């Protein structure tokens, strides 16, 4: 019996299943780690880029509009105060307001100069270089040339492509409304083409001296590769009344 028991015990021990060896632990390779890090960097870069776009296309508009509103209030306060001496027009605060119904951008303060610093304040600027604008208040024939941003920093000329022949452009000063009518549009030209700013802008199709206004901005939208140009010609000058009643074109 003892032998039988021992044999049985030995058999049981011999036939017992041997546990399979544990699979080797997988180690993350250098490639997998690099891919993981690269993915995190892409996500971070995407967030940064998104924030930059929000800043460029939205927040700069908010800041610029606030500044332009403050400057515009100063101009109107000066007008109400009777500051109308010979040198009062050409001030740092602004010389008047541009109204372009087709662009649906309200009134746009106009200041002297077209530098980035000036236009970033959410205004339109009249050219002093490379061709000097002829201000309508001078009464002289010439070209009242203006520029403004098309995106960011107020984007005052964002909808310039909505302008068509026959549309009104109105410039408001303390004493007068200058009413222009669009007669030519140039959707794209070199940003170095200064001929469009000439006293007689022949690229508009005109060959004679007159009282013109020219609006310029960058194109395509969100780039500065080319320039978009709109020309208008003065139709009439309307005196400002006590109520500052706008001309019919702005009704």
Automatic annotation (TrEMBL):
Q: Which residues cross the membrane?
A: 31-58
Q: Which domain of life is it from?
A: Bacteria
Q: State the UniProt keywords alphabetically.
A: Hydrolase, Membrane, Transmembrane, Transmembrane helix
Any idea which residues are catalytic in this one? 149 (proton donor/acceptor), 218 (acyl-thioester intermediate)
Please name the Pfam families in this protein's record.
Answer: Sortase
Keyword Membrane assigned to the entry: answer is: yes
**Where are the stretches annotated Disordered?**
1-26
Q: Name one GO molecular function term.
A: hydrolase activity
What's the protein name? Answer: Class E sortase
């Amino acid at each position: 019996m003892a032998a039988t028991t021992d044999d049985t015990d030995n058999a049981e021990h011999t036939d017992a299943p041997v546990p399979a060896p544990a699979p080797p632990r997988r180690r993350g390779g250098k490639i997998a780690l690099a891919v993981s890090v690269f993915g995190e960097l892409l996500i971070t870069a995407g967030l940064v880029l998104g924030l930059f776009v929000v800043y460029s296309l939205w927040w700069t508009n908010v800041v610029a509009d606030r500044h332009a509103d403050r400057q515009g209030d100063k101009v109107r306060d000066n007008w109400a105060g009777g500051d109308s001496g010979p040198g009062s027009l050409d001030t740092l605060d602004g010389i008047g307001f541009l109204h372009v119904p087709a662009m649906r951008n309200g009134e746009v303060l106009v200041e002297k100069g077209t530098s980035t610093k000036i236009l970033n304040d959410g205004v339109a600027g009249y050219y002093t270089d490379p061709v000097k604008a002829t201000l309508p208040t001078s009464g002289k024939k010439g070209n009242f040339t203006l520029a403004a941003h098309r995106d960011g920093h107020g984007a005052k000329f964002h909808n310039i492509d909505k302008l068509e022949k026959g549309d009104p452009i109105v410039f408001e000063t303390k004493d007068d409304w200058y009413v222009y009518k669009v007669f030519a549009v140039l959707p794209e030209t070199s940003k170095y083409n200064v001929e469009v700013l000439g006293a007689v802008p022949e690229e508009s199709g005109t060959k004679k001296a007159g009282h013109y206004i020219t609006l310029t901005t960058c194109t395509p939208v969100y780039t500065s590769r080319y320039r978009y140009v709109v020309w208008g010609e003065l139709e009439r000058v309307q005196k400002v009344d006590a109520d500052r009643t706008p001309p019919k074109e702005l009704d």
